[in-house]
Amino acid sequence: MIITVTLNTAIDKTLEVPNFRIGRRHRSVDQTTMPGGKGVNVARAIKRLGRPVIATGFAGGATGTRIVEALTAESVLTDFIRIGEESRTNTAVLDPTTGIQTEINERGPAVTDREMELFRDKLLYLAQGADICVFAGSLPRQVDTDIYGSMIKELRKLGVTTIVDTDGEPLRHAVRAEPDVVSPNVIEAEELVGHEFNDDEDRMLAVAEIVEQGPREAIMTVPDGVFAKVTTDNGPQLYRVRVEQQEARAAVGSGDAFLAGYVAARYTGGTPEECLRFGVACGAESTQHFGAGVIDPHSVERLLGDVEAIPVSLPAEVR
Ligand SMILES: O=P(O)(O)OC[C@@]1(O)O[C@H](CO)[C@@H](O)[C@@H]1O
After folding, report:
1. What are the residue boundaries of the Carbohydrate kinase PfkB domain, all occurrences included (predicted)?
2. How do residues 292-313 score in pLDDT, each as one tens digit?
3. Pocket test for ligand 1, best of 6, 143, 252 (most atoms within 8 A of CB)
4. Residue owning the nearest CA to atom 12 of ligand 1
5. Whose CA is nearest to atom 6 of ligand 1?
6. CA within 13 Å, CB half, 55
7. Residue 199 CB neighbours (<10 A)
8. Is 11 in the pocket of ligand 1 (CB under 6 A)?
9. Which of 2, 89, 229, 301 sits at 20 to 30 Å (Cα–Cα) from 65?
10. Which atom of ligand 1 is found nearest the CA of 41?
């Protein structure tokens, strides 16, 4: 079983607004709502890939009920802790004339110590039957920024593989707890290592630098693929994995789809290279659909042949 943890679940509302301009009044021509939050999107995509997955975390109020009911309607297994405050609604404005999407994410509810205690209990219970646990997304209010870090340590004792996709302080703490994999995007990775990347060499060295901070492996997502430092049977290996970028219908959540593909392949025993290639195919395919974590597994298989995995030699200083 694969667990996805989403502490800050959301209803993602996307409004289609042609010629969107800051400071003007608009009427949307179309709108969609879907349960979201990064771990929820990862669970949706893993389910579509046919691997066993359960989504957990916090869900509060009428929005929380909607999130759980909508996931159930998608046949995604859920086991959320119900909390007193309302889960958030994240709003995205998509301008079809330019393809540009603007997002406003709410901070989310405050979580009490008691609710957090209940969640820890639940996670440890679910972890007994799990192989992999994915922690993804921001934290709701009043939650210790070391929460992912402390859960990673507890799950390691149970032999569960831990994978993290978050940012800022929670990411900083999580890497120190030595998870199996961290998967930041470029902006999150630049913040983590403390400098900007100017070229591919910088990006390649950055994943090695992140591994130095604690995780066993690091995968940085970029629009056309990933830069990664993974552990193969022959030792550590750097990879650049890329695919020709297609014109995106909606790129939001492609990092979540990458992670879902990577985890699904890892769950069924893929080699590191196979997992990275499958993840990149899933991330790219997801850009053809509205809705984060929505993928078509048949198109993913077709795209896989176009994904290139290039092993990169380790410079002496990062060996
Ligand atoms: O505020 P967070 O938790 O960092 O990100 C939440 C979010 O923007 O990320 C997903 C796309 O990756 C959306 O489903 C969701 O609304």
Report:
1. 20-294
2. 888 999 999 999 999 999 999 8
3. 252
4. 253
5. 37
6. 32
7. 7
8. no
9. 2
10. 14
Do the Cβ atoms of 44 and 134 come closer than 8 Å?
Answer: no
Give the closest residue to 189 by CA, choosing from 160, 229, 161, 156. 229
- Specify the higher pLDDT residue, 254 or 278: 278
Q: Are strands 225-232 and 217-222 parallel, antiparallel or unpaired?
A: antiparallel
Average pLDDT over residues 139-154: 97
Residues 105, 107, 113, 116, Cα dihedral to 10° = 0
Cα 309 to Cα 208: distance, rounded to the nearest angstrom:
17
Side chain identity at residue 266, one-letter code:
R
Residue in 90, 169, 286 to alter for ligand 1 test, most ligand atoms within 8 A of Cβ = 90
What single-letter amino acid sits at 53? V
Report which residue type is found at 28: S
* Token pair listed for 300: 């993913």
166 lines ligand 1 (CB under 6 A): no
pLDDT tens, residue by residue, 151-160: 999 999 999 9
pTM of the full structure: 0.95
Q: Could you identify the residue written with the tokens 């970029």?
A: 222
